[in-house]
Amino acid sequence: xxxTARVPWVVGVSGASGTPYAAAVxxxxxxxxxxxxxxxxxxxxxTLMDETGIAWHDDSDSLHAWLTSQLDADLxxxxxxxxxxxRFWSPGDLAAGPSSGSYITRGMVVVPASxxxxxxxxxxxxxxxxxxxxxxxxKERRPLIVVPRxxxxxxxxxxxxxxxxxxxxxxxxxxxAFYSKPKSMQQLVDFVAGKILDVVGVDHDLFARWDxxxxx
Length: 216
Hints:
- The chain is α/β, with parallel strands linked by helices.
- The chain has one domain (3-200): Flavin prenyltransferase-like (Rossmann fold).
- It contains eight helices and six strands.
- The protein has a six-stranded parallel β-sheet with strand order 3-2-1-4-5-6, with helices on both faces.
- It is globular, with a radius of gyration of 16 Å.
- The N and C termini lie far apart (43 Å).
């Protein structure tokens, strides 16, 4: 695919706990042969170190280490060709491609979305590339999926989430289901990632779908 034909999904990872959700979304997008522009916020780098022990350097080596950390044994290891579809952007680079509406993307997923990132996006603060890219996604009327994980939520955060919904974003809390009788933490994580991919219209096989039969 030529550079001019490359139309990525922007994935923004903020500082809330929940980096396994982001990893599962990234694996799902890569498996579906999607291109990705990845923005890992400064706070998310601390969370990633705490949850996985990985020092993030905005490169393929860091991503490979992340996507293969703490996985179930039967999950596939990402191939080099898959990782080549990922472009890395520094969170402080406000001249980056995703900061402009003329840079075409399919949309953006913020996963996990901290309360600070939710607030910044809701009020159009654009204090870093993650928030600016989300603001651009909204103003260009592209899909924006925001995945809050923190709880409980204050009234201010609830109001910010309502503001995002009114602006056209999809608010998708990281709330796994149990009807598929999950046997591992990874299956719970994959359920949330699969719901995100459903919203953006990307095919996946991350969870067993409800078929209308109780106790099935």
